[in-house]
Structures are given as structure tokens and as C-alpha cells.
From TrEMBL:
GO terms for cellular component: cell envelope. Residues 1-20 form the signal peptide. Keywords: Signal. It comes from Prosthecobacter vanneervenii. It is found in: Cell envelope. Gene3D superfamilies: 3.40.50.2300. Residues 34-296 form the Periplasmic binding protein domain. GO terms for molecular function: carbohydrate binding. SUPFAM superfamilies: Periplasmic binding protein-like I. It comes from the Bacteria. This is Ribose transport system substrate-binding protein. Pfam families: Peripla_BP_4.
């Protein structure tokens, strides 16, 4: 037993030399470790985002390691906060995050940055006032959601006439991208002289949007269109229109260009959507993070493409 004592003491000495707190400069392999923290993986858009990120890492396996995770639903803020803390404790060098809420994630991201973690914001922009109040600077890599939504709604405007009644089904009201998409829809509808009779939140979810759309159609018999802030909600709205026997009478537009929407675009149940290239959105953020980590650039905003998609 005595011969084991020096070995135990040596092991303890090695353990005590391990740096405490904050992420290491790289993983044991010498490669930086990047974490992708997304919103709901029940949403096809984020599944596509995750697959795109994994493919990029596989093609650049020598350059970095990747951890991919997301929350159960769009509104589970506590779970997303927990994921950020978990990634910091695991020693990642960068977190690329699509925040579920533009304000609620600022505090935990400030903690992460204080621990030495690089933060890159994608998809849903963090609130500028909340960042300023926290003394936090985080680059946003993502699309102009307002411009994209306006472009989609302009396709719809060509199918309507001034005075026609329309309704908006919003995303989570505290999400910046949801706010911007609503504003884009309003820009195009107001310019075309359409009447927005109501705007309600479907919280990005198909089932909730279905119920809201059904209620809107029942309360507003003259509604000619439903403008949905994502394709999940457009799918729910289309089902409500079909149940109300108004297919072809009520136009629908969405946002995201998910695969599940393509049959509805093909047969005209949905008029248009906006492709923000979900399979590349996380990749844009990851590449921006890697450039900063390698010292080749400083953190900066980067606008990514959006394209209108129709039949």
C-alpha cells in the first residue's frame, strides 16, 4: 500500500494544476470547440439548421469540434439559459446562438462572455437596448427579416386589391425576428392599401396557429389572406382554411421555406414563402466564430441572404 501513496500524490498534483473556471483555449485535440444553441428542434427549420451545421463540421473536421443542441419548444427560455450555462461549463470557446427571446438570453450570454466565450448571434437578433444596458456587444449574423417579409407580402399584394381585409399570425412577440416579420408584412399591406383586421401570436407553432386562424376566419368572413411569420404556422393556417371550406378563397404566405411547405406551394394552398437558407444560417455563424478565434477578424455584424419562393 505504501508504494501507492506517491502515485496518488502525483495524481492529485496534476489535478490541482488544471485551470479553474472559464473555457480552455482549445480542446484536447488542439481544435476549438463551438456550440450551436438553437430554438425548438420540433421545428423543421431548426432541424435543417442542425443538419447543415453537422455537414459543415464533417467537411472541416480538422478545423473545429461541434456540439449541437436545442430546446423542446420555442418558449422554453429556462431550458435555453441552462444550455448556455452547460456549454460554458463544458469549456467551449464559442457559442453560436439562435435565442428564443431577444431580451431574456442577454444575462446568461453576458455571463458566458465574462467566462471568455465568444458569442455569435444568429437567426433572431438580440435586443439592442438590452445589450446596451448589459454593456454587452454581440455580433449578429443573419438576414434582414423585415425586408424578407415585405418581399413575400408584396407577392401577396399583387393578388389583392386596396381595401381587402387581411390578418397576420405573428411569432413570439418578444422575438426580434417575429417583430421584424410582422413589420415587413405591415409595410407591404399598408403600401397596397389593404386593411389589417387583426394580428395575433401563434408562437411559431403549427397547432396554435391553426386555432388562431380558425378563430380569425370565423370572426372575419371577408378576410382574403393570412400572413404567417413562419412556415410552421402557415401549415396550421392552411389546415384551418381547408376546414373552413375556403381553400382558394384565402391566400396564405409564410417564411422559412421548409420542406413540408413545398407541396402546398406546388398546389397553390400557400402563395409564397421566404427562404433564409436555414441549412446555411448556422454555418455562416460558425464560420464567423472561427475567423474571430483564429484572429483573422474582429466580431462584426453580417447580413445573410433571403429569397422569395413561389410556385
Amino acid at each position: 500500500m505504501k508504494c501507492l501513496v506517491p502515485l496518488l500524490l502525483a495524481s492529485l498534483a496534476l489535478i490541482s494544476c488544471k485551470p479553474a473556471g472559464g473555457p480552455a483555449s482549445s480542446t484536447a485535440t488542439g481544435k476549438p470547440k463551438v456550440a450551436l444553441v438553437m430554438k425548438s428542434l420540433a421545428n423543421e427549420f431548426f432541424q435543417t439548421m442542425a443538419e447543415g451545421a453537422k455537414k459543415h463540421q464533417s467537411a472541416h473536421a480538422a478545423d473545429y469540434e461541434l456540439t449541437v443542441n436545442g430546446i423542446k419548444n420555442e418558449t422554453d427560455l429556462a431550458e435555453q439559459v441552462g444550455l448556455v450555462d452547460q456549454m460554458v461549463s463544458q469549456g467551449v470557446q464559442a457559442i453560436v446562438i439562435a435565442p428564443a427571446d431577444s431580451k431574456a438570453l442577454v444575462t446568461v450570454l453576458k455571463r458566458a462572455k465574462a467566462a471568455g466565450v465568444l458569442i455569435i448571434n444568429i437567426d433572431n437578433k438580440l435586443d439592442a437596448d438590452a445589450l446596451k444596458q448589459a454593456g454587452l456587444s454581440v455580433p449578429f449574423v443573419g438576414p434582414d427579416n423585415r425586408a424578407g417579409a415585405k418581399a413575400v407580402a408584396e407577392v401577396l399584394a399583387k393578388k389583392l386589391k386596396a381595401g381587402d381585409e387581411v390578418a397576420i399570425i405573428e411569432g413570439v412577440t418578444t422575438a426580434f425576428n417575429g417583430q421584424q416579420r410582422k413589420a415587413g408584412f405591415e409595410d407591404a399591406m399598408n403600401a397596397g392599401g389593404m386593411k389589417i383586421v387583426t394580428s395575433q401570436s401563434g408562437q411559431w407553432e403549427m397547432e396554435k396557429a391553426n386555432g388562431i386562424a380558425a378563430g380569425i376566419l370565423a370572426a372575419n368572413s371577408n378576410v382574403k389572406a393570412l400572413l404567417c411569420a413562419n412556415d410552421n404556422m402557415a401549415l396550421g393556417a392552411a389546415a384551418a382554411v381547408q376546414s373552413a371550406g375556403k381553400t382558394g378563397q384565402v391566400q396564405i404566405v409564410g417564411f422559412d421555406n421548409i420542406a413540408a411547405l413545398k407541396p402546398l406551394l406546388a398546389d397553390g394552398r400557400v402563395l409564397a414563402t421566404c427562404d433564409q437558407h436555414g441549412d446555411q444560417l448556422a454555418v455562416f455563424g460558425i464560420e464567423a466564430a472561427l475567423k474571430v478565434l483564429k484572429g483573422k477578424t474582429t466580431p462584426a455584424d453580417q447580413q445573410t441572404p433571403v429569397d422569395v419562393v413561389t410556385k
